[in-house]
Amino acid sequence: MTDTIIALSTPPGSGAIGVIRLSGPDAITLANEVFAGKNLAEQASHTLHFGLIKNGEVIIDEVVMGLFVAPTSYTKENVVEISCHGSNYIIQQIMNLLISKGARAAKPGEFTLRAFLNGAFDLSQAEAVADLIASDSKASHDIALQQMRGGFSNELKDLREQLIHFASMIELELDFAEEDVEFANRDQLRNLVSRLTSHIAILISSFEVGNVLKNGVPVVIAGKPNVGKSTLLNALLNEERAIVSDIAGTTRDTIEDELNINGVIFRFIDTAGIRDTADIIEAKGVERTLEKMKQAKLIIYMADATQSLNELEEQLIGLQKLDIPYLILLNKADLLTAAQREAFAALEVHFISAREKQGIEELKDILLDKVNLHHINTSETLLTNIRHVEALKQTESALERVMSNIDNPVTSDFLAMDIKQALHYLGEITGQVTTDDLLENIFTKFCIGK
Ligand code: GDP
Predict the structure, then answer these.
(1) Which residues does the UniProt record annotate as the domain TrmE-type G (predicted)?
(2) Which of 142, 249, 255, 330 is 20 to 30 A off residue 159, Cα-Cα?
(3) With a cut of 0.95, is the ipTM above it?
C-alpha cells in the first residue's frame, strides 16, 4: 500500500469534535506539513499533541493529533487521528488541505481492509468490526465482540489445522503412489472428518439463532381492522407512533418498529397490507400479504375479546395453515366479565387490554418465551453472517465426499482434492483464501472512515 488515505471517522454533521483519520506511509509526514506544533516525526507512538492546523498562514483549527506509528496501529500502517472541532466547514477544510498535499479519500471500509491485508486480524474478525458498529442490542453486541476478538476464527483455525495435517499426509501418499503406502491413517481420518462434520453442523445451525439475535425477531401483528393492533404497538413501544383511529382500516402508514426486550430485539415488520385485508386468508389477492407474513418468526394474532369463540376459531383455521408460530391475543379484555373470559378456556389465548395497558408486561415475557432465546449463551459461537454459513455448507459437502471416498476405496487423488476443497472453503471464512471480488463485497458494505 503506497498511498495514504484519509476519511472522517466520526459521523458527518456537526458535533463537539470530529475525528479525521489518516493512514499510510506518509500519514505522519502529511500531518506534519499542516501542523503547527511539535514535529510529529520525532514523537513516540501512541501520544497526543496539541497544536494548530494551518493552510499557509491561515489558521483552520486548534486540534489534537493522535499518533500511531506503524506497525502498532489499527491498520498496522502509520496512522494519525486528528481531533478537530466538529464543524462541517473545518472538517472539509482539513480534509481538502491534506488531499491537496497528497492524501487520497478513503473508500468505504478501506481502513479495515488494510488492517486485514496487513494481518491485524482475519476476515471474519474484520466483518465483526462492521457488526459491532451496527449492533444495537446486548445480544448483537456480545456476538460481534466475541467474533471480533477471534472466538470463531480460533475455532475454525483449529479445524483447519487438523485437516491440513491429513492433507499433507495424503499428498505424501501421492508422491509414493507406486508403492501403495498409506501415511494417512484412514480410521483417524474418518474420525476427524466426522468430528469436523458435527462441529460444522452445530455452527451452521447456530445461524438461525445468531441471525435472529443480530437482526431482531421479525414479528407480525395481524388481525382484523379495529381489534386494537395499533393501540398495542403503541403500548409496546410506549409512544404514539401509529395512528389509532376508530374507523376500520384507516391505519395505512407503514409501521416498522423495534422493541428491545431484555436485550432481544423484536422487529415489527410492516403489516399495512395485512391490516387492510379483512381476513388474512379469505381475502383475495393476499399473496403479497402472505409473503410478508412468511418473513415473520412469530405472528401475534389479535382478535376482539368481545366476539364469540366460534368466530375466533374460524379465523384460526387460516392462521394455522401458515405454519408459523403464533400467539393469540384477545384484546379489549376490559370489556369482559370473568364468565365471558371462561368461554375461551378451550383455547390458549392471552387477554390484554391494549388501551388500558393491561397485560403488556406479561405479553413481553410471553414474547421472550415464544422465541425461546433464554438459554442462548452469547459467549458461544453463533453465526450471524450468511457468507460464513454458505462457506461452511460447502465445507460440509466437501467433507461428505471425503467420507465417502475413505469408505469406497478409490485413489488418493480424489481424497486429496476433496480435502483441499474443504480447506479452501474454511479458508474463505477467515480470509486465508480470498479473491478481489470477495473482499470488495465485504468491505464496500462498511461505512467510510472505518
Ligand atoms: P387496529 O385497526 O387493529 O389498529 O385498531 P386500533 O388500535 O386503531 O383500535 C381500534 C379501536 O379500538 C380504537 O378506538 C381503540 O381505542 C380501541 N381499543 C384498542 N384497544 C382497546 C382496549 O384494550 N379496550 C377497549 N375498550 N378499546 C380498545
Answers:
(1) 216-372
(2) 142
(3) yes
